[in-house]
Write a structure and sequence with these properties.
Largest sheet of chain B: 15 strands, mixed
Number of domains of chain B: 2
Helix content of chain A: under 10%
Order of helices and strands of chain A: EEHHEEEEEEEEEEEEEHEE
Radius of gyration of chain A: 19 Å
Largest interface: A-B, 24 and 20 residues
Number of helices of chain B: 5
CATH architecture of the largest domain in chain B: 2-Layer Sandwich
Strand content of chain A: 25-35%
Helix content of chain B: 10-25%
Structural class of chain A: mainly beta
Number of helices of chain A: 3
CATH class of the largest domain in chain B: Alpha Beta
Largest sheet of chain A: 13 strands, mixed
Distance between the termini of chain B: 11 Å
CATH topology of the largest domain in chain B: Alpha-Beta Plaits
Number of strands of chain B: 17
Shape of chain B: elongated
Shape of chain A: elongated
Structural class of chain B: alpha+beta
Radius of gyration of chain B: 21 Å
Oligomer: heterodimer
Number of strands of chain A: 17
Strand order of the largest sheet of chain A: 5-1-6-8-9-10-11-12-13-14-17-16-15
Chain lengths: 276, 298
Amino acid sequence: MNALTFTLISRPKFTLDVSPLIPDNLEGKNITHIKNIKLRYGKEIVKLEKLFLIKGKNFNHVCIEKSCDKLIYIGKRMAKGLIDIKGDAGDFLGQEMKNGKINVSGDAGSWVGNRMIDGQININGNAGDYVGAGLPGDPYGMKNGLINIKGNAGDRVGDRMRRGIIVIQGKSGDYCGNRIHAGTIIALDRVGKHPGDGMRRGTIVLAKKPKHISATFKSCGNLKMEFLRLLFTQLIKMDPDFKIFKKYGPIAHRFSGDLARNGKGEILILQLINRR
Amino acid sequence: MKLNNVYIDDTFAEAFSMKATRIIITAMNLKWAYRAANAIRGFASSVIACGCEADIERELKPSETPDGRPGISVMIFAMSTKDLEKQVPMRVGQSVMTTVTTACFSGLQTEEKISLGKSLRFFGDGYQIAKVINGKRFWRIPVMHGEFICEESTGITKAIGGGNFLVLGKTARHALTACEKAVDEIQKVSGVITAFPGGVVGSGSKIGSKYDFLTASTNEAYCPTLKGQVKTALTAEIGSVLEIVIDGIDEKSISKAMRIGIEAACSFGPSKGIYRISAGNYGGNLGKHLFHLRKLFK
């Protein structure tokens, strides 16, 4: 069945909150109802049909075409179904997402997966700062789920995340895994300064040695971490895109920390490849 | 009815309801996975005194296990959920966690669950780490060999215990040869185990005893040495009776295992000392699941 497709007529001048465009909201509505959905656009409230061309029947599969970074809150609180974004996505992609899947063909803005509860977000391009992080005032960032970024990510990935997995296949900015409570961050390319600063628990897996690790992390030496084998095997089972993990083995240099804050977290720097 | 000239008694095996779970044990190689699996199935031949019945179900390829290492699937049966809750963490803790390089996972995904790593994590003394991956929660318990990884819980299901058949032969050697082949064939069936040592029972029992304190005692009607002394079920040429007891997750798997087991035992025929196949029948006092031997072949 055809996906319910929203094609952006022209690039908006202001940011546009498209949070109502989730399968949970659209189910049971006919096209006329959907066309009359009202969105906040700048100071105005406008009907959906003025901004998008709408076609398709499968309300469980939403497709946003010609998307751009002005579309914010895509997939907010979605609990089921699939959202395909052809183009870029703005800030707060998948905020408070409960389940389902979001695929972005381009880049995404900041605060991807903010307060995410479960589900999966795949970003083909780059993501901004604060992936999976909590907003100022939030006790936690993402609480569960999986964020997979094929490109690069900005600073403070996973800030205060509570659970879940973030995979960054490209480069990550500074303070990756900053203040994380738990969860797992995997960065397969270079990371910036101070990874894991202030982390309480959780795991940061780095494929490459970082520029700098804080003095409050203590080396445990090179170890065979069977957990990594489990993690990589499970990720490969979850998504064919994660076949990249086949080349990583379980041997890692383990740093425990942040000792300034409980010290039950760990940074694992992968040591060998092709040695499963 | 005869199979390869071996007489099949017109009787039935009487089985009873149980609860079962399946766990997956992995290790750096099969040798160490077997060490753990053999330890967990030790002293687990019968619920009469062991608390549970357990055995290896099959070997698993690395592609079939959660962590991509070689593994063994073990099934554990008990009379109730409460018994499983007691036996499984205790056995995994003492037999699997203590075996070098092992990890333990759930092999059964059901709604009803019992704890696995949820109980064992406390061994980590506060250094244990929980990880949720692919919707499942795992515990990483730091141990002296590295880390013991254990899934938080394992699913349990309704099951059946005590499916059985008796192989009546000329001598113990004849009967055992037939039984060994039968057990080899039964092990190819998914979802069943033969929990007794080697899959064969040398001392089959009846319910009750002349002694009040005993719930089960020797089945004298099938004891060759008592043929002249009691109301025997044996004919003159029979010198040994061995029993194969099968636990399974449903009637279908037990029926299949019994059928192929009996066929394997009968393949030896009277010329190789196998004369009769019978079954443990306790007059309907033991359980509600009846497996009629002759109906297995219809």
